[in-house]
Amino acid sequence: MKKISLCILKGIEPLEGAWAEWVEDEVLTPSQPSDARGRITIELTRPVRSLKVFVFCPGFWETSFKVLRADEEIRVQLRRIDPTERPWWKKAIGSLAPAAGAGVRIGVIDSGCGAHPHLENVEVFEPAWVEEDELFLLEYRPASKVDRVGHGTHVCGILAASPSNGPIGLSGIAPSAEIKLCRVFHGYEENAEDERLQNKIAEAIEFLAQDQAVDIINMSFDIDLSDRGSLTLSNAIDAAHAAGVILVAATGNDGAQQLAFPASHPKVWSVSAFGLDHELPDDLMNFRPPPGSDRWCSKNSGMFLANFSNTGLPGSFCAPGVGIAAAFYKMPEMSDCQDDRLFISMSGTSMASPMVAGLFAAWIGDDSSPDQRPEAIDKHRFIVDATARFVRRGHFGNRHRINGVFCS
Q: What CA–CA distance (Å, rounded) separates 277 from 340?
């Protein structure tokens, strides 16, 4: 099997502007958007016996499936997202103040943020080489709002999409926070082992912590460290932590019992992803663990640790990360620009991480009562003390819950 044909449908009509993603040789690869007839062709570099395919489209729930044979066209039905409905992850987290996150700055290191009407509170920076005293230095400078893959826009939407500019159901957790985003990842092709990329990430952490004085940094990515990159990045994390910055990172999507970096760093809060069975459409059933797995929270709650989610202790959280509908930047090649297609469903620990970062912003924001934010106490230590009362080690079912987030 080297070529796979898909036909993407909404009901019985073809759906233009959807795309497929798959992993080939450990590299995530996207297709071209579906044409006016809803057709997508996946061409592989070498034959495979099976292939897991993910299909996305703005305004629709994502879906995934395994392809075992490709002798005929595969028809894929996508279901619309209703942006007026309160999403399941909002129900899980519970009520937060409308002005949550006021006075808090959140740093984000990601793929960028598009010019989305509900994300006017996001400022984007990107690295540039600057000559100074006959040396070339890497500096972060203001940049235009661009996001080639939509990942960073989605993360920003979870964090701080503004309810005043869009459907209340898809507003962010901390809509009054300021977002300072460093665009480090520009597409699907980056090599996570590239030392230059790791240096850019380290510079971004330093820039956000020092120049932008952020309170929190969200890192919805994982990388394979080079020897030199490991030291550079670890030093940057240590310095940001020492400055009082709360660092939050996704655990990774390998389904492993170990954390990816930077979530594995001892001074970073790691975040795994859970879902809620009865609140999710059948399109997302492939993310559920098998019956009887210890990844189910309990028989009746319907909560489960996503089968893709890495896990690890200590200092870990588990937050909503399956079927997360949030802001999406419409790519230039997509012809449909209706408002209901400014949102998309994505799953991953990348979505769970900003849940926790947003909750940190809500907890320490100006909207909190004075006794919840003692100015004389280091913010990071305050959060540790505030959550420690609820923490108990153990498997998923024994974790304690704060605002719909499990701590261990």
A: 25
